[in-house]
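Lab manual, section 2.4: Encoding a predicted structure.

Procedure: take the sequence of the chain (502 residues), apply the prediction step described in section 2.3, and record the output as structure tokens. A sample record is shown.
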Amino acid sequence: MYKSSFDIDLVCNHFNSSDSIMSFVTIDDINPKVLKCEYAVRGEIVSLAQRLQQDLQENPGSHSFDEILYCNIGNPQFLNQRPITFFREVLALCDHPAILNKSETQGLFSADAIRRASEILDQIPGRATGAYSHSQGIKGLRDTIAAGIEARDNFPADPNDIFLTDGASPGVHMMMQLLLSSENNGILCPIPQYPLYSASITLHGGTLVPYYLDEATGWGLEMSELKKQLEDAKSKGITVKALVVINPGNPTGQVLSEDNQRDIVDFCKSEGLVLLADEVYQGNVYAAEKKFHSIKKVVRSMGYGETDISVVSFQSVSKGYHGECGKRGGYMEVTGFCPEIREQIYKLASVNLCANISGQILASLVMYPPKPGDESYESYNAEKEEILSSLARRAKTLEDGFNSLEGITCNKAEGAMYLFPQLHLPQKAIDAAQAAKSAPDLFYARRLLDATGVVVVPGSGFRQVPGTWHFRCTILPPEDKIPAVVNRLTEFHKAFMEEFRD
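Recorded output:
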């Protein structure tokens, strides 16, 4: 269970006061890289929110609000999003194959779910989801994922390039572990960035080399900025190994154009950089004029092959319309690496034995869902479209709400699950935050939580252009709760601006 700093203080105080403890690990004994890394989306604000929630349960009416509204993390089913029926039917049948041939099953499960579960079980050694698999993932499931990638991109995909993982995060950690050997090794990362990247780079001993997205152009990626930051890193003796692209963006919600991606590919090819493509929100695009293009598709459409550029693409079952965060499924597609390096990647995968089998199955279902003509297709497509259209409406309501407020500007959410509005705070508010030894956006987020029960993540947890302040807000609360988020934040923000008006 996640422990807050309050919980840890209690434990440490217990140890310090106990005569029965002869020796124990102190904060000075642990890895300094662990102390240095941060992960804001489950940080201080969330710990405070959990305490407030407990207080509300134990002391009803003790606050001016009656529930906590979590807008801090991309965790759809925690916020009442229903799982996709077809996916859960297949999982249930795979986990309990004894019911596959029972007559009652025909009335409870769709025919294509029964057929798909039987096919998957035939691919699993021992037909047992409780057994280990091949360290790279079950071969038949990788075949299915490769077929799904081919259908998406119209370019071939090799199942031997696919490594199934417990969500995208372990894949990111594996690549950082592979590429980073000292602080003199750098990774170019977009700023703002998802804190997984800063944390994993720190944990594996490298240096994050920032490239700043242009908020004024809808969080655009300017090639001049990439070149400037690369040259600056080189001047400091840092060897940059890779470039991270998050598309659609987290926390910024932009969708990269194909032309922009082509420029990025050429840049990485000319500089000899590994291109790490975080594409976990590929199913979440809301802007009618935008379309998701995978980096690998762009690479192949430019005529580049295996010997031209190294690309690693990450996908997850946690995001998208499916939102299966707790199942921990995902994969990375690894292309353009020589056999010797591939062996080392496989070794890293083997250290973890294998990804969990339910997550592997889900990854195959996400990448190869029901097709027209299948019994489940109509219901599957209806569930998917209902979720995505609702997310688009929620994003627009929040965006309009933020932009109606004095001192807040917010770019459109073209994709993903977040908005990243900028706070233009009065100097008195900034001074008050400094007096409280707090970043101004953390100061704002803490005050917002205390006053309204709305949980957002300070922009400083994602890094940002120095001197600017933001917060990340998910679009995931149930649609009927979105007006409450807007109303509570509006009331708070107006009072906050009046209190600190210069």
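Check your result against the sample. The chain is about 45% helix and 10% strand.
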